[in-house]
Amino acid sequence: MKPLSELLAAGEELTRIRRDIHRHPELCFEEQRTSDLIARQLESWGIPVVRGLGKTGVVGVIKGGESNRAIGLRADIDALPMTEHNQFAHASVHTGKMHACGHDGHTAMLLAAAQHLAAHREFDGTVYLIFQPAEEGGGGAREMIKDGLWERCPMDAVFGIHNWPGMPAGAFALASGPVFASSNEFKIVLKGKGAHGAMPHLGLDPVPAACQLVQAFQTIINRNKRPIDTGVISVTMIHAGEATNVIPESVTLEGTVRTFSVEVLDLIERRMRELSLNLAAGFELQCDFQFRRNYPPTVNHERETEFVRRALTAMGAEVQRFEPTMGAEDFSYYLLDKPGCYFLIGNGEGQHREGGHGLGPCTLHNPSYDFNDQLIPVGGSMWVQLVQNWFQEQQA
């Protein structure tokens, strides 16, 4: 697709903004500098802002015409708690903080659209530009909703996008139904009785029970849930013992569960709890079972997904099918309340990175990652066209 000429002309300035955000990353609910920068930029284009939603969230409000119709566009703004390996000029100045997921680029693309829409209000309704904090584990979408996002910014539909390394730069991918999984964590402590390793009969050893429990969890996946349903149980941490000749008093197992539906999640949590408590009892152990639900599955609405597909196709964009991933995304909270679609834009293979980049691949959550600045006018133009098409279809 061909980007708008005005956004191509503004590309250098928008790239400067993106790299400034990349250079000064902030973690979830700490994005004060980033929020201030976004608010100042929006206000300089004559766009009023709403602040204080989700602590550091910013919403720009662009009105055109007289209609009460409204659409929401979302970009996440937080960074990850990891150290960047890149050494180019815009690399992070904060050790242990990095924009390794491209939220700086998502923000720049939405700012590009904001600049154009503010100058060309050729639509009948309101556009809400949602700059959301704390996507990386903080549930910023949920917190913005709790703080009154829907009441203060009433919208009929909401859309979001994420860059996707490995997909051709500027191509798009989408699908209706589940596209990101629910994210959940568990912690199980099996408590027994410590003893000398040479005299196991004097203790209650939790280690064999823990080994059997890890294996038993996989029977939930291949024997309890339907084969056509999707679910993952990964025990990712096991902690036990301090010496080779001591039977430990307890074993701690931790990990993650991912599903595409709440029904499968209910089943997995119930069976994990039953297996943990009953197996522990069989070994004369005590069991502390904790299960925490984080993000729900991200489920795109069919009507809105087909709208995005039509709009992208009309722009001449390459549109692929989004193969669902077991990763998680808190855009899911918006889609629980509002119709909408969350889709992808290709970030390329990493050839766009400047000299001084890390030796690792340009993949998400990798210390050598960097967003492809060529996407800023492409993504901004896409948002503009999406807004115009949405209001036209609503009028029709």
Radius of gyration: 24 Å
CATH topology grouping of the largest domain: Aminopeptidase
Shape: elongated
- The CATH level-2 architecture of the largest domain is identified as 3-Layer(aba) Sandwich
Give the number of domains: 2
Mean pLDDT: 97
Low-confidence stretches are none
CA(first)-CA(last) distance: 25 Å
The major beta sheet can be summarized as: 8 strands, mixed
* Strand elements, count: 16
CATH class of the largest domain: Alpha Beta
* Strand order, largest beta sheet: 1-2-4-3-5-16-6-15
Order of SSEs, N→C?
HHHEEEHEHHEEEEEHEEEHEEHEHEH
Annotated CATH homologous superfamily of the largest domain? Zn peptidases
* SS strand fraction: 25-35%
Helix segment tally: 11
Quaternary organisation: single chain
Structural overview:
The structure is a single chain. With 396 residues, the protein is of the alpha/beta class. The protein has two domains: 276 residues, 3-Layer(aba) Sandwich (Aminopeptidase), CATH 3.40.630.10; 113 residues, Alpha-Beta Plaits (2-Layer Sandwich), CATH 3.30.70.360. Helix content is 35%, strand content 26%. It is built from eleven helices and 16 strands. The protein has an eight-stranded mixed sheet. A hairpin with a 3-residue loop joins strand 1 and strand 2. It is elongated, with a radius of gyration of 24 Å. The mean pLDDT is 97. It comes from Inhella inkyongensis.
